Amino acid sequence: MKNKKSKTEKTGNISRRGFLKGAGIAAAGTVIVGSGILISKPHSHEKDEKFVPGTISINMKVNGKIREMNIEPRTTLADALRSELHLTGTKVGCNRGACSACTVWIDGIPTLSCMTLAVEVGDREVTTIEGLAKDDRLHPVQEAFIEHDATQCGFCTPGMIMTAAHLLARNPSPTEDDVKKATSGNFCRCGTHPKVFAATLDAAHKA
């Protein structure tokens, strides 16, 4: 008569009970290598209340202030600004770099924040529509947009203003063609481009 197999039936060098026990704690850091089970104790973050599994901690200079965030590496700059820092002036339209509603400045250069990872910013400075005004005084372009009613629904407005303000920083006396060329990548579903052109030219005269 053949001997009955024990309850802890062997599978290779590991008992079935041992295998199931190891598999059960895989989510807690178990790694199966070959025929052995290596169990690593999960790192404790009890003292770090901000820690969220799968995130990394970064510092970013935004509108003149250093801000700390814990984000997933895949987080775009637009999402970090809106969701983590609550700077919701930056809008996300197409989310694929086609409409320019999400335009911010990185070291003074207009950048599509929906196409930029937050971790890519590094030690460069980000300026959003909230940081364009100085000492509670609106930027001349912001004032001109209000005076000329160039906002319409307002969704594309932050990106338009950031682009127009950058143009005036480079060229204080632009022509209408210069304004059209600078804002050619900013899409307005309301069709308010003529008022955008007029507002930008007016801001140039008042600056």
CATH-derived architecture of the domain at 90-116 and 125-206: Orthogonal Bundle
CATH homologous superfamily caption of the domain at 90-116 and 125-206: [2Fe-2S]-binding domain
The rough form would be described as globular
Helical segment tally?
6
Strand order of the largest sheet: 6-5-9-7-8
The Cα radius of gyration reads 27 Å
Question: Do you know the CATH topology of the domain at 90-116 and 125-206?
Answer: DNA polymerase, domain 1
Instruction: Describe the sheet with the most strands.
Output: 5 strands, mixed
- CATH class call of the domain at 90-116 and 125-206: Mainly Alpha
**Strand segment count:** 9
Low-confidence stretches: 5-12, 23-47
State the end-to-end CA separation.
Answer: 102 Å
Describe, in plain words, how this protein is organized in 3D.
This protein is an alpha+beta fold. Among the domains are: 11-39, no CATH class; 90-116 and 125-206, [2Fe-2S]-binding domain (DNA polymerase, domain 1, Orthogonal Bundle). Helices cover 29% and strands 18% of the residues. It contains 6 helices and 9 strands. It has helices at residues 16-24, 77-84, 140-147, 157-170, 176-182, 193-206; strands at residues 10-11, 14-15, 30-33, 36-39, 56-62, 65-71, 103-106, 109-112, 125-127. Strands 6-5-9-7-8 form a 5-stranded mixed beta sheet, with helices on both faces. Strand 5 (56-62) and strand 6 (65-71) form a beta hairpin.
Topology:
Elements: E1 10-11, E2 14-15, H1 16-24, E3 30-33, E4 36-39, E5 56-62, E6 65-71, H2 77-84, E7 103-106, E8 109-112, E9 125-127, H3 140-147, H4 157-170, H5 176-182, H6 193-206
Parallel strand pairs: 5-9
Antiparallel strand pairs: 1-2, 3-4, 5-6, 7-8, 7-9
